[in-house]
C-alpha cells in the first residue's frame, strides 16, 4: 500500500546552527494511528511543522497523498488538519463561527450540516453559541480539533492533544480519535503521556536528537522489547538464591519471601518450564505466582538510554 505520508532524507538546520532533523525517513500508513514519541527537543514539533507547511524544510522530500508539499502545496495542505499544542484561536468569536471560518481558509463553501456533525461528534453542539473565551481548557482543545476537521481532512495531526486535560476528558477524547480512525482519517499523534500512545496507537515511532531510531507496530514492539517478570511468592523465605537455580535470571525480594524471574518472549516457554522443574528439584514450595510485562514507558526509556 502506498503510504499517505512519505518523508525521505529530511533535514532541518535553524539559523542558530541547531540541527533539528538529521536525514529523517518515515512512512505513515493510511488509516492508522501513529504515535511519535521523543523527549523535548527531539524534533517532533519541527517534523510536524514541516509536513504541515509551517516550518520551511531543509534537504529531502515529503509527499502527502502523493502531492509534493513544496511543488503542490495547496493540494497537500488541503488533506491535513492540524491541532497545535498551543491553545490559540479567536477567543471572542462563538464556537460555531470559529469552526465555520476554517472551511473558508481552504476555499470551501459554507456547510452548516458538516459543522453541526463535527460539533456534535466532539460534544460541542450545546456550546455552539458560546464565545470560546468562556470555555474550559478541555473544551477549548475540542474546539481546536473541530476547526482542524471542518474542511474534511484525510490526515489529522495532534500535537500533545490532551496536555492539561483531566483524565476523564482525556479518555473521552481518545474514544473520539478512535472513531475518526474508524472513519478513515489517518492520525499522527505526539504525546508526553506514554499511556496515551500505549492505549491508542497502532504503530509507534521514536525520535531522538533529530533521528528516527525506531518504528514498529505497537504489539510487535511490546513483544520484542517488553521485558516480562514473574514474581514467585515462596512458602518459606530464602537467604540466598540456591545454587541449582543460578542459571536462571532470579533475584530475591521482599526479605527473601519472593523470587523475581525476568524473561522475554523468545525464552518464555522453555525458560519457565525449566525454572519450575528446577524449583521442584530444589524442594522450593510456592504460595502464589504473579506476572507483569514492562510498559511502553519502560521500553521507551530503555531505548533512549541505549542511544545516549
Structural summary, described in words:
The chain is an alpha/beta fold and 308 residues long. The protein has two domains: 5-223, Rossmann fold; 226-294, VC0802-like (2-Layer Sandwich), CATH 3.30.2130. Helix content is 34%, strand content 27%. It contains ten helices and 14 strands. It has a six-stranded mixed β-sheet, sandwiched between helices. Strand 4 (61-64) and strand 5 form a beta hairpin. The chain is elongated, with a radius of gyration of 24 Å. The model has no long low-confidence stretch (mean pLDDT 86).
Which architecture of the largest domain would the CATH scheme give at its second level? 3-Layer(aba) Sandwich
Query: Largest sheet, described in full?
Result: 6 strands, mixed
The first-level CATH class of the largest domain is given as Alpha Beta
Number of domains: 2
Low-confidence stretches: none
The CATH topology of the largest domain: Rossmann fold
Number of DSSP strand runs: 14
Approximate strand percentage: 25-35%
- Overall body shape: elongated
Instruction: Provide the CATH superfamily of the largest domain.
Output: P-loop containing nucleotide triphosphate hydrolases
Instruction: Provide the structure class.
Output: alpha/beta
Number of helices: 10
How far is the N terminus from the C terminus?
35 Å
Task: Kindly report the spatial arrangement of strands forming the biggest sheet.
Answer: 6-7-8-3-9-10
| H and E string | EEEHEEHEHHHEHEHEEHEEEHEH
The rounded Rg comes to: 24 Å
Amino acid at each position: 500500500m502506498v503510504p499517505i505520508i512519505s518523508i525521505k532524507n529530511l533535514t532541518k538546520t535553524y539559523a542558530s546552527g541547531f540541527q533539528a532533523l538529521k536525514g529523517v525517513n518515515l512512512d505513515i500508513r493510511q488509516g492508522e494511528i501513529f504515535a511519535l514519541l521523543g523527549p523535548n527537543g527531539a524534533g517532533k514539533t519541527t517534523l510536524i511543522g514541516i509536513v504541515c507547511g509551517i516550518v520551511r524544510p531543509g534537504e529531502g522530500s515529503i509527499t502527502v497523498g502523493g502531492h509534493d508539499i513544496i511543488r503542490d502545496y495547496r493540494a497537500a495542505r488541503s488533506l491535513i488538519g492540524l491541532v497545535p499544542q498551543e491553545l490559540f484561536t479567536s477567543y471572542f468569536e462563538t464556537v460555531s463561527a470559529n469552526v465555520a471560518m476554517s472551511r473558508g481558509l481552504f476555499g470551501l463553501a459554507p456547510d452548516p450540516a458538516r459543522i453541526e456533525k463535527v460539533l456534535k461528534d466532539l460534544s460541542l453542539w450545546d456550546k455552539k453559541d458560546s464565545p470560546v473565551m468562556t470555555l474550559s481548557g478541555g473544551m477549548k482543545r475540542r474546539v481546536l480539533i473541530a476547526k482542524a476537521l471542518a474542511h474534511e481532512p484525510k490526515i489529522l495531526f495532534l500535537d500533545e492533544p490532551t496536555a492539561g486535560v483531566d483524565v476523564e476528558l482525556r479518555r473521552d477524547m481518545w474514544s473520539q480519535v478512535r472513531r475518526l480512525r474508524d472513519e478513515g482519517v489517518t492520525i499522527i499523534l505526539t504525546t508526553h503521556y506514554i499511556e496515551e500512545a500505549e492505549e491508542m496507537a497502532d504503530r509507534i515511532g521514536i525520535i531522538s536528537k533529530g533521528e528516527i531510531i525506531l518504528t514498529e507496530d505497537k504489539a510487535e514492539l511490546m513483544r520484542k522489547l517488553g521485558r516480562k517478570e514473574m514474581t514467585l511468592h515462596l512458602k518459606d523465605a530464602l537467604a540466598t538464591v540456591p545454587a541449582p537455580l543460578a542459571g536462571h535470571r532470579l533475584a530475591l525480594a521482599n526479605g527473601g519471601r519472593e523470587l523475581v524471574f525476568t524473561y522475554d518472549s523468545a525464552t518464555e516457554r522453555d525458560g519457565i518450564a525449566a525454572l519450575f522443574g528446577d524449583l521442584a528439584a530444589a524442594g522450593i514450595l510456592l504460595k502464589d505466582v504473579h506476572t507483569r510485562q514492562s510498559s511502553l514507558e519502560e521500553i521507551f526509556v530503555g531505548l533512549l538510554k541505549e542511544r545516549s
